[in-house]
Specification:
Helices cover 47% and strands 3% of the residues. It has 280 residues and is mainly alpha-helical. The protein folds into three domains: 78 residues, no CATH class; 82 residues, no CATH class; 82 residues, no CATH class. The protein starts with a helix and ends with a helix.
Amino acid sequence: MVGTFRLNWIKSCLSQSNSMWFHIPRSLFKQIGGLDFVLKCDFDVNRIPTKLSDFHKQALLSSKMVFTHNFSPHNSNVWNNRVITINRKSVFIGNWFEQDIIFVTDLMDCNGSFFSYADIVEKYNLNCSQRYFNKICKAIPLPLIHLIQNFLIYNNSLSILPNLLIDECNLMDKKCNNKFISYVLKSRIFHDYCRGIRQSPILVNSVTLNKAYSKFIKWPILPKVKETHFKILNKIYPVSDFLKKRFKFEVDLCSFCNNEDETLEHLFFLCPVSQFFGQI
């Protein structure tokens, strides 16, 4: 619910950019290219080169949970990039951004080599020192440079910013409502949410369900036990079956009996070794 509220705030901030209610965030994000641009960057909230409030950081983190930006070397931004840093902070230069220098490829020729200082000043009509230009170039990691060079040699694709899509649905689309955003967030957090298999086999009636999903928080037990309880109820406990479905791991049979697949139901409720523990 909180994640949905934060994403709706982002949606309102983008659609009502001239509203007085968004004057402060508009001014803050303008220092790093605007909110719309920041959302399309591979950013790290702790490295963004401006001071943001905790709420703005949380809103950006919520956006990273749902927006899918497929990595392509030639689409790597120079600005607000978590891997391109100076003094542990991402980089953003307003006058360079205004001259349409956005991607790392904008600083390179067709072979993937950086332009000389004289060429970059002439091409973009920049007003900067050679020392600072060299500093920006050195901030770009060498592995990323090699990936871009290889891509430029064998491909002719143009660099473009990604669209703000949530499961192939545009953020500003009417279909992207509260229900849809909430569904996407739950599907990201709970692996089996989309399949509708959230109920454990021992929870057979509404009274038991209500106690299991809410009352256990008040029980006088250790936080680690409560955490385990929560993961079992929501079917996100890292048993072998869960790791295989979600991360494609190669897994073994049940760690206890070594006879059946290690599913959540088997490990905690059906395994004869687990049942023996329960009788002790």
